[in-house]
Amino acid sequence: MHVSMARYFDERNYTATSSQHGGIAGLQKTVSGLQSPQKRHIEQLEKANARLARELEIANGCLDLQKKALSMLDHLNSGGNV
């Protein structure tokens, strides 16, 4: 329903702008203006997602390193060879 409501309001804005600003030329400005903030928001989300993915990769690497270090310490304390 959310998509259909958005389409409804876009079509209403399209019609209102068309009559106010001389047809298709006015509409194209309005439609691209509406999409521009959405595109900008999507780009921000994609950038944040990539940053978080890198941070997760680093955190997982740190955990792996800690596990290996703990395993080595356990072998040393138990008298085993590393």
Mean pLDDT level? 77
Taking Cα atoms only, what radius of gyration do you get, to the nearest Å? 28 Å
Euclidean distance between termini CA atoms? 61 Å
The biggest beta sheet reads: none
| SSE series | HH
* Shape estimate: rod-shaped
Secondary structural class: mainly alpha
Q: What features would you describe in this structure?
A:
This protein has 82 residues and is mainly alpha-helical. It has one domain. Helices cover 90% and strands 0% of the residues. It has 2 helices and no strands. The protein has helices at 2-20, 24-78. Helix 1 (2-20) packs antiparallel against helix 2. The model has no long low-confidence stretch (mean pLDDT 77).
